[in-house]
Design a protein that fits this description.
CATH superfamily of the largest domain: P-loop containing nucleotide triphosphate hydrolases
CATH architecture of the largest domain: 3-Layer(aba) Sandwich
Helix content: 25-40%
Radius of gyration: 30 Å
CATH class of the largest domain: Alpha Beta
CATH topology of the largest domain: Rossmann fold
Number of strands: 17
Strand content: 15-25%
Distance between the termini: 99 Å
Number of helices: 18
Structural class: alpha+beta
């Protein structure tokens, strides 16, 4: 009988010794948010510019969906025809807002002068926002060495959405590995979607009609692991009053998913290796029996290297084929599409009507969504796709009180926001149109402080916008007009303030200081 005991330390995976991916790279601008959510994920492949300066604007360039479809410009009326110029060099990229253009935001800061960013920033991804309505990501990313054929896109899964080159390559790899019939080891950080990939591998394999049994190896106590995995017969141990089928037998004809396989107890690893080699199990107290099962395993643990306690033979047997998942921060261009998917899914789960804006939504609603997607794009997502899904669920749960980013997102972005504000004496306002600002002030009963907070601008900046909005301060209302508003409002200060379109608090303060010492309550 072969010796399945551990005789050596885990050897570094041959995959880890391969040369760095030599795939060529391309500079890509991806739509992360657009007033028409159906356009999220479209991209523009930046041509090799040479000495040419390229321009982002309302009618140029053309963005194409990853699947078949017509290329279209951003075509948003709030974006200038020529908004932002891009000049690339070996050192990085220079981004410059063009004269008289709409407001431009670069990596969280509204800017009016040229900004130069190095290659490292370009590889990480540079968040761009044009006006208050469109969020983009400029990033240098690897291009797959082989074409992404439409036939392999049938392996797509709603939970594995994303139009980036990485996600397209992943779906292609899933389709290829699923057909192979080999055991598969899925590796990636926690929350990166390992179970989703396992389910996709099963769903697109020849075993799709059989069961998929999922087991969390970290949750099985070492003492009962053999019986849980391989089964037991009646009388094999105290309390074994009947025959029990283990997970391997339950998965017969299908697939067995061993999640957190890196936490397999040391004593169980030789037994698991034997099962994988011989395709037979021995129930506790019973005889050997054949099993017909494909094993898909997953871990975020470091299985390779001399410091690992995981047995090298088992590690390489589990990984007859291997799928390596990238963290979300390595393919941020997918954040927009994933967030949309999770928002829609959460609405269905919770029983809410669709939450994402329609293309004809009002400016304020569009600006709120753009701000939320911009925050998502700049967040590090240490919890990866799972954290993004939880964030979307929280947004839907809180939707009764408006489109608000979860507290965690705000906390994570606080340092970046503080740094941005430290560069100027006051906050740079979001470029809301006049109609949107009027609607926002009306919602906040013309209280400037509350409206400014929601618009992401300072009170001073909003005060300066009042004349162009056709509005004024309570102190600026002529006495005769004020008296008439009080009469029309039946003496109610709040009603009079709404008629005058001024702050109730400010109007009450003015009345309080009048020589005739009017009542400072809600009625005069």
């Amino acid at each position: 009988m072969p010796d399945y005991s551990r005789t050596d330390a885990t050897l570094p995976s041959v995959f880890a010794r391969l040369a760095v991916n030599q795939a060529r790279t391309a500079r890509v601008v991806t739509i992360v948010f657009h007033p028409d959510p159906n356009r999220i994920g479209e991209r523009w492949l930046v041509p090799e510019p040479g000495s040419r300066t390229l321009v982002l604007g309302r009618q140029q360039p053309l963005f194409s969906p990853a699947a078949a479809g017509d290329a279209r410009p951003l075509d948003d009326p709030h974006i200038s025809r020529q908004a932002l110029s891009l000049s690339f060099s070996a050192a990085g990229v220079t981004l410059e807002p063009l004269p008289a253009a709409c407001r431009c935001r670069i990596d969280g800061t509204w800017v009016s002068t040229a900004q130069t960013l190095d290659r490292a920033a370009l590889r990480r991804g540079i968040a761009l926002q044009l006006a208050h309505s469109v969020v983009l990501l400029l990033r240098e990313q690897p291009v797959p060495p082989e074409p992404l054929t439409s036939a392999l896109q049938e392996a797509d899964d709603a939970a594995l959405c994303g139009s980036s080159f990485y996600m397209q390559s992943l779906r292609q790899q899933i389709a290829r590995v699923a057909d192979s019939g080999l055991d598969v080891l899925i590796r990636g950080e926690t929350g990166s979607g390992k179970e989703l990939v396992a389910r996709a591998l099963h769903a697109h394999s020849e075993r799709r009609s059989g069961p998929l049994v999922a087991v969390n190896m970290a949750a099985i106590p070492a003492g009962v692991a053999p019986a849980a995995l391989f089964g037991s017969v009646r009388g094999a141990f105290t309390g074994a009053d009947r025959n029990n089928r283990g997970y391997f037998q339950q998965a017969g004809g299908g697939s067995l998913f061993l999640d957190e396989v890196g936490d397999t107890p040391d004593d169980v690893q030789p037994q698991l290796l034997r099962v994988l080699q011989e395709r037979e199990v021995q129930p506790v107290g019973g005889q050997l029996e054949k099993v017909d099962v494909r094993v898909i395993s997953a871990t975020d643990a470091a299985l390779d290297g001399p410091a690992s306690s995981f047995r090298s033979a088992l590690r390489h047997r589990l990984g007859s084929a291997e799928v390596q998942l990238a963290p979300l921060r390595a393919h941020p261009e997918d954040i927009g599409e994933l967030f949309c998917h999770f928002i829609n899914r959460a609405c269905t789960e919770i029983g809410r009507s669709p939450l994402l804006p329609e293309p004809a939504a009002d400016e304020l609603r569009i600006a709120q969504w753009a701000e939320l997607f911009h925050l998502c794009l700049r967040h590090a997502w240490p919890g990866n796709v799972r954290e993004l899904a939880n964030c979307a669920r929280q947004v839907v749960l809180d939707s009764d009180i408006g489109i608000q980013p979860p507290t965690l997102l705000l906390q994570q972005s606080a340092a970046a926001v503080a740094e941005e504000y430290a560069q100027t004496e006051e906050r740079v306002p979001v470029q809301l149109g006049d109609n949107a600002l009027r609607a926002l002030l009306e919602q906040e009963c013309y209280e400037v402080a509350a409206a400014a907070r929601r618009a992401g601008m300072s009170r001073q900046a909003l005060y300066r916008r009042l004349p162009e909005l056709g509005l004024r301060l309570a102190a600026q209302v002529p006495e005769t007009e004020l008296q008439q508003a009080l009469v029309d409002g039946d003496g109610d200060v709040r009603a009079a303030a709404m008629l005058l379109r001024v702050s109730t608090v400010a109007l009450r303060g003015r009345l309080r200081n009048r020589p005739d010492d009017m009542d400072t309550g809600d009625r005069v």
